[in-house]
Amino acid sequence: MTTFSLLPGRYDELVRIRRDIHRHPELAFAEHRTAAIVRRDLAALGLAPLCGVAGTGVVAVLDTGRAGRTVGLRVDLDALPMTETADVPFKSEVPGTAHTCGHDVHCVIGLGAASLLCERRDTLRGRFKFIFQPAEETLEGARAMIEAGVLDAPAVDVLLGCHNSPQLETGRIGYRHGASMASSSAFVIDVRGTAGHAAHPRSGVDALQALPMLLAGLNAIRAKEVAADQPLILSVGRIQGGRARNVICDSVTLEGTCRTLDDAVRDEAEAALRRLAQGTAMATRTTVEVQWRTLAPALVNDRETLDRAIRAIGSCLGAGALVELDAPSMGGEDFAWYTQRVPAAHLRIGSRCAGRSTQLHQSDYFCDERAIESGAVALAAAAAELASS
Ligand SMILES: [Zn+2]
Ligand SMILES: [Zn+2]
Predict the structure, then answer these.
(1) Architecture of domain 8-180+298-387 in CATH?
(2) What distance in angstroms lies between residue 78's CA and the mean position of ligand 1's atoms?
């Protein structure tokens, strides 16, 4: 078993790169500067990075020349449309854009893993494909990368991914068998009635009548239509409608999200919502239309891939570094699209920083950059093992 650790000089360099990316965050599919930094670093390692994959993605292959499998290592590049409030010397210099999900750290974890594997190429087998994906936050990047052929030529046999986790101490690596992150779907329910004078209710068809039926119906789907041990979230986060206080409301729109850990449950929820819409329309004399878009399926880890990955990580970082997570996340992650195509494992890289925010997507989120080392070592160790046969 090969052991991995970053040389101190390389760690310092990765911290510098991370802080540079953090200061200059870029949104989905606009990660031009970030991609250029990634390309430069990969080229300095002696690789021949391919840029512009699915717009701003970067891909590089390390071929050891020895028989083995091709292992993909996927990290993400993009930031979020929010203003950073964390008090750090390398705070975002772009108003309204910030790395409050820690993808800046993911970028350099990918670069760190690349340097670890390049240094030891003479002792390794197979091929390593370093995949720097744009637009994870909008859940669009993975599909775009797959369509651009990132899993082909050379064909990726097995894929690794990771996300930092402020719920875990830095240095720990979390994992979960089976479904570890939720499917994420967006739905819009459009109710149309007819306007009229509010003083004369029969002069129109009030679209608002549909509202309590739809909201109660969504809760009933959760309560009555799926097994009690199957998580299902059907949340409405935005409602818009009406023209004036004295005009019968002719239009109301509800927007929401559906999360499940099983794509079959997601499909049942969609079918139930469409039935609810039809019934509501009939009962209220309105028309009700549903738009449903699945942004990411459930992220399901391949058991054998995950088992081999965590064994390799345990022998490198120590078994004490591994944490089996007792609950899945109901957050979505577009890495899930790859898991439908190739056996894959997704890891959580502990990044908790004492006294700092422990929630991703908060304006003061601060990802502990010491996670760069444990993340890079974990990915490299797992990749080396998975490539060996
Ligand atoms: Zn995020
Ligand atoms: Zn993220």
Answers:
(1) 3-Layer(aba) Sandwich (3.40)
(2) 9
The residues spanned by each domain of the chain are: 8-180+298-387, 183-296
Report CA(325)–ligand 1 centroid distance (Å): 19
Query: How confident is the model at residue 354, as a pLDDT?
Result: 84
Please check whether the two domains, 8-180+298-387 and 183-296, share a CATH topology.
no
Q: How far is the CA of 136 from the centre of ligand 2 (A)?
A: 7
Q: Give residue 385 CA to ligand 2 midpoint distance, Å.
A: 26
Nearest ligand by distance to the CA of 348: 2
* Domain 183-296, CATH class in plain words: alpha beta
| pLDDT of 2 above 80 | no
Which pLDDT tens digit goes with each residue over 332-372?
999 999 999 999 999 999 999 888 878 999 999 999 999 99
Instruction: Compute the distance between CA of residue 134 and CA of residue 129 in angstroms, rounded to an integer.
Output: 16
Ligand number, closest to the Cα atom of 361: 1
User: Taking 70 as the threshold, does the pLDDT of residue 1 lie above it?
Assistant: no
- Residues contacting 79, CB < 8 A, separation 6+: 25, 26, 27, 92, 97, 98, 99, 100, 101, 103, 104, 137
> Which residues crowd ion ligand 2, with CB under 5 Å?
101
- Return the pLDDT at 3: 81
Closest ligand relative to 80 C-alpha: 1
To the question of pTM greater than 0.90 for the whole model, the response is: yes
- How much is the pLDDT for 285? 98
pLDDT on residue 357: 78
Residue 51's pLDDT is: 98
